[in-house]
Amino acid sequence: MVGVPTAVVAYQRRTAAGVMSRRSVSAKVARMWLSSSLR
Questions:
Q1: Is 1 buried (19+), middle (13-18) or exposed (0-12) by CB count in 10 A?
Q2: Domain of 25?
Q3: What pLDDT is recorded for position 1?
Q4: 11-32, pLDDT tens digit by residue?
Q5: What is the pLDDT of residue 21?
Q6: Spatial distance between the Cα atoms of 27 and 19, rounded to a whole number of angstroms
Q7: How far is it, in rounded angstroms, from Cα 33 to Cα 35?
Q8: How many distinct structural domains can be found in the chain?
Q9: How far apart (Å, rounded) are the C-alpha atoms in residues 36 and 6?
Q10: Is pLDDT larger for residue 3 or for residue 24?
Q11: d(CA 37, CA 27)
Q12: How far apart are alpha carbons 17 and 33 in whole angstroms?
């Protein structure tokens, strides 16, 4: 039963990292779009 919680934690960490990377990518795109629209 010890392997189940560790797998769940690893899955949650993986999804959290994916969400963070997606957020950073979207932030970069938004910044590029804002800078290009301001010019």
A1: exposed
A2: 1-39
A3: 58
A4: 888 888 888 888 889 999 999 9
A5: 85
A6: 12
A7: 6
A8: 1
A9: 45
A10: 24
A11: 15
A12: 24
